[in-house]
């Protein structure tokens, strides 16, 4: 019995020694278990028109050149310039590269640090040093390497790596958000520019019509059938329309300069020829499933990854309450005579194996834990805010799409009726059945109605861009098979 007890007692240190490396490698993590905060997504959008179906592009769906749905080659060319020339996008790419580099730097702590050294010393020793009878000369040469490794028992290093990688992912989502914002801003500015072109074309046609009306009024005045008051009224309308052409040209120039800045060029280097084409109808836009929006919006994705990063930093802060355990290992060759690279010149050292723990720090570690928990709460609140903002923006764009479509129908009808009224008033004046005040009133109302119709059409196109931005990118490749209802709702 005594022999068995002795054997058992001798085996315990051996077993403990064999289990120690496994325990050291396994370690533990002080970070709380991470789970994405739950957001109650609505089953459907309140502002989505009846009959709209939900697309499901999610993260893997191609976003692609969504602006091509507007069918404008000039817009396609301008959008392509952003990738290579926009300084805003270049800065976002640089921030993403920096975040990835920081993640790589943090990951390096998972591995041992190995350093190599080589020394060569020529030394003359004093003849009067203690125990010496004469001066001596010798050369000391050494060649070696050292290894240092921190055992990540409490997950400090692993959580630091998780935080850095989550920040890199968030920076990647920020890059996607910047890219989406730039493309959307460019499309919005370009559509405003084309709306101004349509307005300028209307004003030029109006100036021609007003000039003819002025000629008619002057002829009637010369024949004694019209007063000078009628001539002045006709001249006022004509001059005001010409002034409006200059005002629209001023707004167009500023918009063109805005486009130049977005594509990364100087205003003098960019010129976009005007077009006489009217404002096009917006493309059909499918409704995005609310739950999918959380996975699709890059700003929402960035906010979620920053929660993961702050969650990992809690583990880093809590690990500071436990000792750091490091291992040192060194070896090499040293010789003052004879061959350096030989067995007699070899040396090695295992250690030190050191453990360090702060016993008193004035509450610094407790404060660091409280700080990281507060940062986590802030990141979680920012995530919820980003999700709610995303839902609101989609609802706003859907409501605007639906209501502007109805407004366009009525506004176009009003413009048609006002144009007909203007023609009838001018005919009545020509025949002497009405005075010129009736003509002025009708022409002014017709111009206002037609300009309002162009404005509504432009806003519909801009709303299509806003919906693309709200949904987190393009959706053309994710359109459902049956789009008849979507097209009907977009007209």
From TrEMBL:
A Gene Ontology cellular-component term: plasma membrane
Q: What is this protein called?
A: Efflux transporter outer membrane subunit
Q: Does the keyword Membrane feature in the UniProt annotation?
A: yes
> Where does this chain mainly localize?
membrane
Where is this protein localized, as stated in its record?
Cell membrane
> Which UniProt keywords are given for this protein, alphabetically ordered?
Lipoprotein, Membrane, Palmitate, Signal, Transmembrane, Transmembrane beta strand
Q: Which residues form the signal peptide?
A: 1-31
Highest taxon of the source?
A: Bacteria
Can you name the source organism? Sphingomonas horti
PROSITE patterns (UniProt xref)? PROKAR_LIPOPROTEIN (PS51257)
What topology does the record note for this protein and the membrane? Lipid-anchor
Q: Name one Pfam family in it.
A: OEP
């Amino acid at each position: 019995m005594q022999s068995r007890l002795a054997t058992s007692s001798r085996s315990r240190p051996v077993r403990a020694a064999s289990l120690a490396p496994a325990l050291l490698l396994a370690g533990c993590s002080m970070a709380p278990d991470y789970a994405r905060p739950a957001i109650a997504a609505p089953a459907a959008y309140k502002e989505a028109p009846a009959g709209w179906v939900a697309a499901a592009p999610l993260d893997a769906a191609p976003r692609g050149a969504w602006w091509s749905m507007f069918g404008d080659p000039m817009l396609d060319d301008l959008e392509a310039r952003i990738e290579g020339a926009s300084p805003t996008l270049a800065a976002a790419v640089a921030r993403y590269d920096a975040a990835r580099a920081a993640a790589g730097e943090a990951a390096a702590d998972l591995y041992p640090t190995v350093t190599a050294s080589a020394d060569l010393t020529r030394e003359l020793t004093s003849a009067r040093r203690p125990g010496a009878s004469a001066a001596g000369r010798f050369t000391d040469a050494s060649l070696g390497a050292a290894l240092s490794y921190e055992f990540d028992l409490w997950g400090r290093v692993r959580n630091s790596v998780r935080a850095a990688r989550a920040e890199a992912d968030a920076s990647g989502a920020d890059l996607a958000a910047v890219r989406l914002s730039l493309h959307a801003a460019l499309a919005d500015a370009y559509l405003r520019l084309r709306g101004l072109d349509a307005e300028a074309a209307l004003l030029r046609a109006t100036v021609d019509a007003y000039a003819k009306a002025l000629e008619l009024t002057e002829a009637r005045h010369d024949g004694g059938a019209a007063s000078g008051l009628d001539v002045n009224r006709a001249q006022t309308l004509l001059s005001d329309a010409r002034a409006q052409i200059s005002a629209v040209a001023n707004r167009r120039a500023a918009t063109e300069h805005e486009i130049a800045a977005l594509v990364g060029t100087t205003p003098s280097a960019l010129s976009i020829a005007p077009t006489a084409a009217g404002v096009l109808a917006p493309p059909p836009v499918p409704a995005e499933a609310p739950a999918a929006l959380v996975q699709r919006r890059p700003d929402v994705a960035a906010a979620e990854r920053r929660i993961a990063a702050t969650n990992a930093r809690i583990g880093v802060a809590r690990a500071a309450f436990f000792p750091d355990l490091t291992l040192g290992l060194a070896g090499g060759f040293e010789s003052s005579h004879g061959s350096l690279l030989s067995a007699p010149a070899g040396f090695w050292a295992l250690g030190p194996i050191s453990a360090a723990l702060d016993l008193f720090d004035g509450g610094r570690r407790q404060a660091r834990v409280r700080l990281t928990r507060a940062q986590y709460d802030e990141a979680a609140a920012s995530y919820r805010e980003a999700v709610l903002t995303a839902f609101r923006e989609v609802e706003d764009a859907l409501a605007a799409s639906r209501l502007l479509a109805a407004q366009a129908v009525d506004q176009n009808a009003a413009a048609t009726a006002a144009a007909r009224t203007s023609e009838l008033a001018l005919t009545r004046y020509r025949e002497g059945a009405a005075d010129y005040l009736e003509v002025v009133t009708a022409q002014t109302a017709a111009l206002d109605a037609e300009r309002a119709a162009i404005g509504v059409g432009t806003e519909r196109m801009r709303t299509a861009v806003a919906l693309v931005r709200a949904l987190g990118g393009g959706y053309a490749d994710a359109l459902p098979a049956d789009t008849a209802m979507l097209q009907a709702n977009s007209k």
